[in-house]
Design goal:
With 493 residues, the protein is mainly alpha-helical. It folds into two domains: 384 residues, no CATH class; 105 residues. It has 21 helices and three strands. The protein has a three-stranded parallel beta sheet, covered by helices on one side. Strand 1, helix 21 and strand 2 form a beta-alpha-beta unit. Helix 5 runs parallel beside helix 11 and helix 19 runs antiparallel to helix 20.
Length: 493
């Protein structure tokens, strides 16, 4: 069908079109610089570091791929890998949701909208994040493996449950928060189940959630066994939360609010705060209208599904961060929660259309508007808040190294920027609009990457250097001073 082909091409090509400028801009982002060196000079370090955080497979994949890339100029290939995986994720969601009762267009909007969320923008912009998206694909694969055989019963159901749980286990060994993305297809399919299936909604949901919990529990147990056996050392960041009440307050104020705003970014300095909170209110209003419409139709089953998805699944979607003592607020941990919000928004609009509260042209215009806003904001945010400012930092360091005449005892000093020296007006944590060179360790790694860019893997014979950095101007004489404070001159609103 023509409509099916259009959906296929849109899901395949839109992520590439949206993220193309970001992917092929020359830059690294924070950890990218150190990983490029460590993957070749310190084999095993990445695996040990990520395993200490409960993600041993993540480190193995990073070390393997960064060793092949080796230079900043080749990082675009890792970012391109991420975008290809995002396109596959959109296709997998579209296929699964369409088969489960959503219309083709609804399923396509959900699939496309999810890969263009701020979490997707971060993933497409950060070379280290491609395993994050692989985790999302595994989460969807685990759900699909179980769903395919769940209604049939017997041995096939058992095999599917075991297989799905093992897939979830692999996802948990990669990136725990993204392994929970499985709740997105679970919620999406639950909402459109007709009630005529062999399994009741409750039993169907419990089986899927049981398989997810078992898979993640196995991955957690395996990691703990490795810690006990001394294979890896446990990071303090693996500690569990001891103050659940304040953690709940944090959840509502930060992750949930950020997820409800969908494509509108939060800002550390409240730039655009009115727009951010307006977006939150609009989304909450749409969800409320969708819920009230179901109640008004006296549909008790739909009402229960709404309550489960509104009051229960959001906590499960963010369970990894809720359980951990660390309170990470980055968008990169919000794939599951934001994806759930998007599913609920589309289902709310669908409920309004079914109840004839809105006409069909308005409904499809709303879906088109969501897709358009998602594409425009994803392109702009990834390019102007990540690729270009990070490229500015890399260009300053690289150009300084390219111009410098080195000798045996060259002394180099890099003046690190303060937050006020950034080249962006907006900023959120260590992601959108942030700096890489304002830390203690990244400046030296950036400098080493610039040296490899100029001289290759080995410095010329007779050449050596010492490197220092700090926010203050150097006290002594240096052969090369790299002043990152000039970034402020490049600031654009």
């Amino acid at each position: 069908m023509i409509r099916t082909r259009i959906c296929l091409y849109v899901l395949l090509l839109t992520p590439l079109a949206v993220y193309w400028q970001t992917v092929f801009h020359e830059y690294g982002l924070r950890d990218d610089y150190s990983h490029l060196r460590e993957a070749t000079e310190e084999p095993g370090k990445l695996v040990r570091f990520t395993a200490s955080h409960g993600r041993p497979l993540y480190g193995a994949l990073l070390e393997t791929t960064f060793a092949q890339v080796s230079e900043v100029e080749r990082l675009p290939w890792l970012r391109l890998t991420t975008v290809v995986l995002l396109s596959l994720l959109a296709l997998a969601l579209w296929r699964q949701l369409y088969q489960s009762g959503w219309t083709e267009i609804e399923a396509a909007v959900i699939g496309l909208g999810i890969v263009l969320l701020p979490a997707g923008q971060i993933a497409a912009s950060w070379a280290v994040a491609w395993p994050h998206v692989l985790t999302l694909l595994l989460a969807v694969a685990g759900f699909s493996a179980i769903e395919t055989e769940l209604e049939r019963g017997g041995l096939k159901r058992l095999v599917a449950l075991v297989g799905g749980s093992l897939i979830y286990c692999l996802a948990g060994l990669l990136y725990q928060s993204n392994a929970l993305f499985a709740v997105v297809p679970i919620a999406a399919v639950l909402l459109v189940r007709t009630g005529r299936e062999p399994l009741t909604d409750m039993r169907w949901s419990l089986i899927h959630l049981f398989a997810l919990v078992v898979g993640l529990a196995i991955s957690y147990a395996l990691v703990k066994l490795m810690f006990v056996a001394g294979v890896f050392h446990e990071s303090p960041r693996m500690q569990l939360e001891t103050n659940p009440l304040t953690k709940l307050g944090w959840f509502f104020w930060m992750p949930l609010a950020n997820a409800l705003a969908l494509y509108v970014l939060r800002d550390n300095y409240d730039t655009g705060a009115v727009v951010f909170w307006a977006a939150v209110l609009v989304v909450v209003a749409v969800l409320w209208l969708g819920y009230r419409t179901s109640v008004a139709r006296a549909d008790a089953t739909a009402r229960k599904k709404w309550l489960v998805c509104l009051l229960g699944i959001p906590f499960l979607a963010h369970a990894a961060s809720l359980a951990a003592a660390e309170r990470a607020v980055g968008y990169r941990t919000l794939f599951a929660l934001s994806g759930l919000v998007l599913v609920l928004v589309v289902f709310a609009l669908r409920s309004l259309r079914v109840a004839e509260r809105i006409k069909q042209p308005v409904y499809y215009s709303s879906l088109a508007l969501i897709a358009l806003i998602a594409a425009l904001t994803a392109n702009r945010n990834a390019r102007s808040l990540i690729a270009e400012p990070q490229g500015n930092e890399w260009e300053i360091v690289r150009n300084a190294v390219q111009r410098m005449t080195f000798k045996a005892d060259t002394k180099v000093y890099l003046i690190t920027p303060r937050l006020d020296d950034r080249s962006t007006e907006r900023m959120f944590t260590d992601e959108f609009g942030s700096l890489s060179s304002d830390s203690d360790w990244v400046p030296k790694e950036m400098f080493k990457s610039a040296l490899r860019n100029r001289f290759g893997d080995k410095l010329p014979k007779g050449m050596g250097y010492t490197f220092d950095s700090g926010q203050q101007e150097p006290a002594g004489a240096y052969d090369l001073v790299i002043d990152m404070r000039k970034l402020k001159k490049l600031r654009t609103p």
